[in-house]
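== Sequence and structure of one protein ==
=== Format: two labelled lines per protein ===
==== Data for this protein ====
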Amino acid sequence: MCPKYIGQICLKAPKCTLKIRKSVNDSNIGLNEP
């Protein structure tokens, strides 16, 4: 889980990059969900 979400970009979370990419692929809407 990411500490902070801005649109689909995670702040201060290098490991979240993969999760963000998956999130963007899953739903390219812009949900702020980890």
